[in-house]
Amino acid sequence: MRRAEEAEEFEELRPLLFSIAYRILGSVSEAEDAVQETWLRYRLSATTPVSTRAYLSATVTRIAIDVLRSARVRREEYVGPWLPEPLLADPYQDPERSAELAESLSTAALLLLERLSPLERAVFVLREVFAFGFPEIATAVGRSEAACRQLAVRARRHMDAGRPRFEADRHEREQLAERFFAALHEGAVEDLRELLAADVSLVGDSGGKAPQLGRAVAGADAVAGVLVWYRGRLARAGVGWEVCEVNGQPGAVFRDREGRVLNTWALDVLDGRIRTIRSVANPDKLGHMGPVADAWALARAADLPAGRSPGRGRAGGGRRRRA
Fold first, then answer.
1. Which residue among 62, 69, 71, 204 is least packed, with the fewest CB closer than 10 Å?
2. Contact call for residues 68 and 75 (beta carbons, < 8 A)
3. Helices 52-76 and 2-25: crossing angle, nearest 10°?
4. CATH 3.10.450.50 in the chain, residues?
5. Could you tell me the pTM of the whole model?
């Protein structure tokens, strides 16, 4: 009976545990592994915790910190730009902290978190995103409450210094994304240019395991031109997309004719314009979304130059559209 109660309680807390781990790690697969390891430790524990929520949150945080420390070594050797694994929906819902949860899920925020030390990152996530008290945080990270307060101050200072201010509300972002992808569908370079900030950048993460743009592209003229040029090649290969949220921001999932995931795009919006387009094409980062397309075969079908291709994407719901 006790085991059944433990399992039920754990499943109720799983969304919270995953959400903590994902924000610390920026990886869906690593976060899922951290949650599973937390469950194993919980089952093997000989004592019953006073607060299951506090115990499991502390456990998944410690596991995630250890994973992050080793992951950072691998990321230093990563081929090309590194972006977080795209997440279509946060399983943890808390109406009282919906704004903090949404902001902390964005790709821009996750990249800012990458600048923090593992301990600063964990403290920031627990305190600023999930509103844990400092006694709980101290237990989770193995530091004194005073040290955790200092870590929180430093982390908040770093985040505030680099955080862009996304002023558009959800409806405005969705409308801008609809216009953007409609212009992309039509291959309307002037319409695309009008929606892009003057200093817009297009950044791709393939990890060297899929074709993509050889380097980041910057400037409205250059990005609009690249998007239209590649849109034609994607159409030739039968690639379509679904407009949807990616990490809480406007975006799309790109798929081949069989519906296999090719990549994801996430759009950062500022002052009514698209500031950054981030594309994740590394197949290792897309497997949690379903079957992954053969990007190299599609590049050949699209007649793309070797080593270059547009950002491809994957996303959850939304309307399917052929390029």
1. 69
2. no
3. 40
4. 170-322
5. 0.90
